[in-house]
Specification:
alpha+beta, 8-stranded mixed beta sheet
Length: about 450
């Protein structure tokens, strides 16, 4: 995990502020005889997903440790240990029947590599992706940060192959380079995607540090459906969770989120210290970092909590099986306004309109409102959807602590009490001084 990314970007941008299941069952029968069972019981809601054997995940970590040891003690961008890590994963995925590609980028004068693996089949217009950064810092082998996420995503992909899963969505897996230098690899990948391709993503799941030795169980609070999927899993095994705040915006999901792709993920903590209240929930040691070897030479295979790694690996599989097998959504009736509307600084609310006609009855209970607002401090903004009769539906409230740029999101509104036809408006108001922006575009999808 890139520890300084969020604060660095904020200070640069805001210098004035301090701020199908049958096949699964057959595959599991063979799997149980070949590997030791995982210690974490799966909840009833996740029975279709396989139990990911923690021994398999740890075996990948042992290989990554050996690669680091043989290559100067690390697997950092531009170093031979990183490319050897890519080669190890690619060989496993190729043998399992994935279509793999290695893409390149340049950072700090060195060639970087991303590894992409596609599972054949599924709706190509509905892509579910899971990913993790594969690089370490130069000071150590990076087994928790982020061998843990990389290995768990790899083993989940291999479980898809063992099950010969036939998901409704197209499954894609990715491993990113140069995350530790500022999320460089994933940014290069996202930037390479045409807008039409980005629109096909139903979600990107990120896993960065999921085996911390003094672990917490943190869930990203980004896309509500993805967040609920992980929370439901953990509720099913009786493990409380907290919202992830330490690494928010500092890992690869930020690049996907910035272009409007729904994101979510898991995290077990880095340099912050575990509180007494968290020890009451999760065990461990109060007053000690979740990972005392964060970005250090001691981030080795000894720096892993097996229970956390096991639970999170199973949670990843649960999410892939659950979200990957949701019914695909046919293209909707889209009404869009792409005319820019300036949002005055600390001023009156402005609106942008779309006219809906030719429909019968009321709007749906799952009306999708896609919003793209460019602004240098999105916490200043209050955003509402106005129905044709003037009824306001709050999409986003203001927040003094929300320091990031832009509002690029899709909201779901229960508009079933509203007539579908008429003039719908997006209303935006900037309620604080010093930052400016504009409505770039917005759309309704029925």
């Amino acid at each position: 995990m890139n520890h300084s990314q969020h604060s660095k970007l904020s200070s640069l941008s805001h210098p004035r502020r301090t701020a199908t299941a049958v096949a699964v069952a057959l595959a599991l029968t063979g799997l149980a005889t070949a590997t030791a069972p995982s210690s974490a019981a799966a909840p009833a809601a996740a029975l279709a997903a396989p139990d990911i054997p923690v021994a398999n995940v740890k075996a990948h970590l042992t290989q990554l440790q050996s690669i680091a040891t043989a290559n100067g003690g690390n697997r950092a961008h531009g170093r031979p240990g990183y490319k050897a890590s890519i080669d190890y994963l690619k060989a496993k995925l190729d043998a399992a029947g994935f279509t793999t590609s290695v893409t390149t980028f340049t950072s700090s004068g060195a060639t970087g590599y991303n590894l992409i693996a596609d599972w054949p089949g599924g709706d190509p217009n509905q892509i579910l992706m899971a990913g993790a950064h594969l690089d370490s810092v130069s000071s150590g082998p990076g087994i928790n940060d982020n061998g843990s996420g990389s290995a768990a995503v790899l083993e989940t992909a291999l479980a898809v192959s063992r099950a010969q899963l036939k998901p409704t969505k197209h499954l894609r897996f990715g491993w990113w380079g140069a995350e530790e230098l500022g999320l460089v690899g994933s940014k290069a990948y996202v930037n390479s995607l045409p807008t039409t391709e980005r629109s096909k993503f139903t979600g990107y799941l990120n896993f960065d540090m999921i085996g911390s030795p003094n672990p917490g169980y943190f869930v990203y609070d980004d896309d509500p459906a993805i967040e609920k999927t992980f929370k439901d899993y953990y509720a099913g095994i009786g493990v409380p969770t907290e919202i992830e705040t330490e690494g928010d915006g500092r890992s690869d999901h930020a690049n996907f989120k910035n272009v409007g792709i729904p994101v979510g993920g898991l995290f077990t903590g880095a340099s912050r210290t575990k509180t007494s209240a968290q020890v009451q929930k999760w065990g461990g040691t109060a007053g000690t970092a979740f990972d005392r070897c964060y970005h250090s030479s001691c981030d080795t295979t000894a720096n892993i909590n097996d229970t956390a790694l096991d639970r999170n690996s199973d949670a990843i599989a649960h999410a892939i099986w659950t979200l990957g097998n949701e019914p695909t959504v046919p293209p909707g009736d889209v009404h869009e306004n792409t005319t820019d509307v300036a949002v005055p600084d600390n001023g009156a609310a402005v609106t942008s309109s779309v006219t809906v006609s030719g429909r019968t009855g009321n709007a749906p209970a799952t009306l999708k409102v896609g919003v793209d607002i460019k602004h240098t401090w999105r916490g200043d903004l209050v955003v509402d959807l106005l129905a044709p009769d003037g009824t306001a539906y709050r999409l986003k409230s203001s927040s003094s602590s929300d320091s990031a740029d832009n509002v690029i999101a899709t909201y779901t509104v229960d508009a079933s009490s509203e007539a579908a036809n008429g003039i719908w408006k997006l209303r935006v108001q900037d309620i604080a001084a010093q930052d400016t922006g504009y409505i770039d575009s917005w759309k309704l999808t029925f």
